Amino acid sequence: MGRKWNNIKEKKASKDASTSRIYAKFGREIYVAAKQGEPNPESNQTLRVVLERAKTYNVPKTIIDRAIEKAKGGAEENYTELRYEGFGPSGSMIIVDALTNNVNRTAAEVRAPFNKNGGNLGVSGSVAYMFDATAVIGVEGKTADEVLELLMEADVDVRDVLEEEDSVIVYAEPDQFHAVQEAFKDAGVTEFTVAELTMLAQNEVTLPEDAQAKFEKLIDALEDLEDVQQVYHNVDLGE
Question: pTM of whole model > 0.70?
């Protein structure tokens, strides 16, 4: 799959941390997850996934606790989950997931970067069919063979196990996210370099140099939007 997930995560975390936006985005996501069910990760699987992701991005405990306490306190901030699908330069494909309390504002804000950078928004389903929802979990200190063995012993089915940089990355169905983590924890592994539920492109494309610069500007502009939680695409950026 070749996405080099640690490099992608570190680049995004470094960029977002400089503006503290990653904390605000996780705070919103944790609040929404806690409001949708019990504000307890032991009984709320959605919240548990978000907290595992937050841990790999070193989100401060104070941010996490504040969001959960806000949900417990009965705050009535209402957020809508939105997914936009569009095309960037040279026909590249992009998915944008957002959480917003103002749908019209978010739609306009998401549309603007596409229009300014050689892209356009598509209709629902125009892009997503070329992506697969995927759990991505990474660990250090083990080989791919060791990870395969412990997953087999735990009877956990996965799509692939690859060595990428200094980590071993497991790709699995989204509903296997917790099973993979539990298999690692049973084997004494409690720290994860990557813990994501993402949308993986079935096929990556390489853009011409001039189009790639415009594409990266488009992605940066989308990720800078306050309401945008995740941006997925099918372009090989050569990370």
Answer: yes
